[in-house]
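Quick entry, no commentary yet.
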Amino acid sequence: MKETRHRLTLPVWLLLACAGVPLCAQESGSAVSEAVTAPASSPIVRPPELERDVQFWIKVYTKVSTSQGLLHDEHNLGVVYTTVTFDPSMSPKERRERLDELRDKYRAMLKRLAQGATDLSPEEDKLRELFGVEASPARYRQAMDEIRFQLGQADRFKAGLIRSGAWESHIADALAKLGLPPEIAALPHVESSFDPTAYSKVGASGLWQFMRSTGRRFLRIDDAVDERMDPFLASEAAAQLLDFNYRLLGSWPLAITAYNHGAAGMARAKDAMGTTDIVRIVREHRSRSFGFASRNFYVCFLAALEIDRHPEKYFGPVERRAAVRFSEVEMPAFVPAAAVQKLLQVSRGELERLNPALRSTVWQGQRHIPKGYRLRLPPDASQWTTQMLASRLDPNELYAGQPRPRSIRVRRGDTLAGLARANGVGVQDLARANNLKTSAKLRTGRTLLLPVEARAALASVAPTPAPAAGASNPAQYVVKSGDSLTDIATRTRVPMQTLVALNQLRNPDSLYEGQRLRLAADESPPPDVLVAAVTADPKTEAAAEALLSDRREESEVAVAAERPRPEPVSASQAEAQGPALSPGNGVAQASDPVDYEVREDGTIRIAAAETIGHFADWLGTSASRLRTLNGLKAGRPVVMGRRFKLPPGAASHAQFEQKRRDYHHQLQAAFFASYRIAGTETYVTRRGDSLWAITQRYEGLPVWLLQQYNTDLDFSDLRPGTQMVVPKVEQLAGL
């Protein structure tokens, strides 16, 4: 049964202050004699069984600075061997050597305890007492290999408390709007220490540390805009993600842990343990990916919440920053940042501070501020409107699209100077655009970007009317249950070969209910709404860039996972590895909850947008063999949600799973390059409803996204009165 969702409208600081119960941070790692829990009305539970761990992190966040650290047992955080203080003059290498000496010392002591030594020193006797009821030779031997170092965070946490005032009221509003617990407002302490510029080596960015692939579900992320860096927009996106996690998992402790471990990972943990009890999952769940970071994420959050409630108790008087104030104006066209700065008489530094989502490419002139972008201005500039900007900007500074960089491929014998001369650009400009020295030798086959050239501007930019909501697209056909490609070709009078080519279908069986088929090649937009020099399709380029960016992100995360990084021993090393105050692993937030794994009996559950043709391709077998194995007649599509048998020996299940995940990843990356999730609503099915009929009610909604929000729903058996969550998608402006 899911916990009650609370609709709250009071400011978060008032709600937290009213709900808070003081706690005393212990100086040792021993268990707490009197556990304190969150108020009974709060869904953010604080189990007594986890209090020992909470107290450990309170100490890390308030008592131990980044010039210190704790040497402790990895599994029992009540076992703290010693507090290490580094001399400011020590290098990172010297610090590591000091830690290695201490580890060797405590390993030797644990070895004597495991061997049953009776002539214990006072320090060894104290160490034996630390393990309490866990004390045993086997436990001591285990502990020898699990001595971990945790760098202190007190100075960083205090700085985060001060920064948090700038955005806390907006975060409270974003949470209250979705009816989420107000306590979640403390989560950025754990993720970024409320630093909106925080960036991880594996690609997590901003106040809420969104990975690119997850952030794009709710935010715009492209070569001109990265809304992860905007604390206001990112807070709204984080609320949506946490709401999604809760809908899937039915428990706030699990939903919060999923922010680090991923919704699919926590769903597997919940199913494997047969419970939503966070204590049992943290203490007993075993998984290769559910490591120290995931086990400790929720208790890190509880510790941060306690400190955020009572900062003066731990740090004395703390004065938080005043809330950020600004006015906004929607851009009437694509406009160079320099033109806006000149017209408004606002410094570039001030515009950059107020608009952190605009990337450096905009400020350097390589990209324009996008049309439709809500530009933030100083609060005293509230008189500006979209119409005023359009009328007062020079007509030659109003563009219909982004300038697109051109590229050239290096041939044998090409030089940088020769290519610059041939393309009418300066050699220094060409070198700068490609991060090269002017004397650099070029490798044959390399692609070089040419410096962005001025584009022909439009004298005026007329808005293109948007299609009416719910209007059908005559250039598309939506597949209905029972449709075959032959039927569709006959009905639409489009040759079957044309349908296959336009939609890149692998075979005539590659159809599923709700699939949208193109019936004609895309027509070129009318010339009066395009800049003449822009020949590429921005949406296609955005989708391609999304896929490339995700590939880079996946590669970086894989390297981080395969090569465990050494524990940071200094503040600079901690920042270099990642800004999270908890021991994060940088692979957080995987937001696709669909299970793509092959079960032990060799079956899978069919996901949206999958066909027998896909399965045959991923397995290296024939579609007819799969149909025979599953008792399916020719021409009948597979049904989403049903079980499907895979033949043994066709290909390894691991290879099949990887190809399957790659396919869905690419499908989703291409979609979210142009769309974002703007919210959700509840839909109650009616008599005669089908999956096809429901998707037609919501323009642009793909079936696979509807499935992700309703993983427990059997779409093949929709009955009147069935409730489902429908994600509302909207097209990104200014693409």
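second:
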Amino acid sequence: MPKVPARAAARWRDLVAEIRRHDALYYQAAAPVIADQAYDALLAELAALEAAHPDLAVPESPTQRVGEGRDEAFPPHLHALPMLSLANTYSRDELDDFFKRTLKALDEEDDTSLEWSVEPKVDGVALSLEYAAGRLARAATRGDGREGDLVTANVYGFLNLPARLQEPLDLTVRGEAYLDRERFRALNAAREAAGEEPFANPRNLAAGSLKLHDSREVARRGLSLAVYALHGEGLPGRHTERLAWAAALGLPVLPVRACRGEAAVLAAVAALDAERGALPYETDGAVVKLDSLALQERLGATAKSPRWGIAYKFAAERAATRLLAIRLQVGRTGAVTPVAELEPVLLAGTTVSRATLHNREEIRRRDLRAGDRVWVEKGGEIIPKIVGVVEAARDGSQRPFVFPDECPACGAPLSFAEEEVAVRCENPACPAQLRRRLEHFASRGALDIEGLGRQWVEILVERGLVRRLADLFALRAEQLTALERMGEKSAANLLAAIARARTRSWRRKLYALGIRHVGAETARTLAAHYPDLARLRAATPEALQELADVGPIVAAAVVDFCGRESVARELDALAAAGFFAHSEPETAAPAAGAGRLAGRTVVITGGFVDASRAELKAWCEAQGAKVTDSVSARTQLLLAGEKPGSKLARAQALGIEIWDAARLARERREAP
């Protein structure tokens, strides 16, 4: 990007990497770590940067795409109509600006001439369902808006969803999968009775349930659907009429308010805000849409969001409770994070007993003391946080918190680096770090070691059976069966899962190592350019920053990781255990110079009737090509299917060779 200042380009790369990390946590891991408003602030900064430097506004930027990625464990599904995501707004002023933009775009002066709908914004997971001749044929997640994951078997088990409509119609139904409050409380009560960790919140549980491979377990969890749109031939011309018709067909529809003019919309939003605590499901806002489908079509949409609707996010619910203590927890990278232990309080439908404090500066800024009466709210209805202290309730018994100089887990001196807010334990043998590293190592997005959850990680470390990652591969059946509640079958299954971890792709192994700032997508980029450990260890910061997803912060983290003596010992132990010996690329590559596309950089765009995107990517790589997501001057070939979008225009402008579906089919038939 030669026209962009180096500092702006570096900031763009860092923002993209951070947003993608949060996308993976939210959509794939169902474990977000920031509130929606903080995430939207990152997107807003990225959009402003791209507005100032248009060369940065490439099609693969998060500002141009719906954030959810695909899960390769499920078959892909190309949406007939894109699944967009409503833009969020957090204040009445922003909502007023939305109305003004709409009036101007429609060339209207009187807001009372426009009719709107207002409905609850259910805190769930977007789905697209296709009914053929009245029968449920397919169900898919939103994915990246164009292509999602086919999860039909899991959707059949929803509590309120008919497998057959009242009429034999062909319809595309859009809705939100969710778990109601009563069901969520019952599931958590059962888990706690069994000594298991409770689920964090209904939204995360719904997202995780849809990605399960056991449809019977999904059915047991009892998800529901809230329909918010219909598409098909001969449908009514108003959104509210379509929802009424959907209800008549037997589809589950939530209450919707029809309004005329801005004042009526604001009153409906306020009424919904007042009653949300009594609703049987979690809702974090109100969805406002133009009721006329013809007007919706006139306004159109951006790459990510429709211009005819918006999600107004309610202020987070707040409750007062007692701060019992401030504890310190040690993460897998050694970061020591303070956590508030609270007197349990019901907040936004769940019981809150802990809240993150982020860092020592937040404790100082808020002057938090054990015994304080504090205000707690959920950021984005998900993450509990302390937002204030009731100073009038202090009686003199409270004392300021003093951050210790030693690690609470191992007693090693803590590092208070001036350039970082974080406090770190630099002891590589710290048991708390080991526990968190093991959890990440075994997680689904990394090595996916089934059966090695937090409970067993704690036991293995506590018993001294695992003192470093490599020790996992030396575990024996007799060691495991000696543990309480570990039978012979469970031990055999766990050992088999650990053995399978040796065969995971290099990309997943690289992500499993837990390098700071390296998420799943960045690990994919690194693995593609550095196909083995030796070459990654030799990489320089300058070379790393030439990669698409790598800025100075990520590059520095990779070089620091590879240069640490303690890391070197860990990697050598893993190598001795055979961990790296069996790493294979995502798709076997042909010999150098072999294959129809040997040495070429290829981009795939649009839909193809006779092959999925994943199948085409695998074919290209088997023919010696390198497949990337974005069109650039380095791209040598574009495979363009139906509805190729902006990538086709960019490729044409750059003079890049383009194959349409017919040419691609011919090349595939003739390829060896």
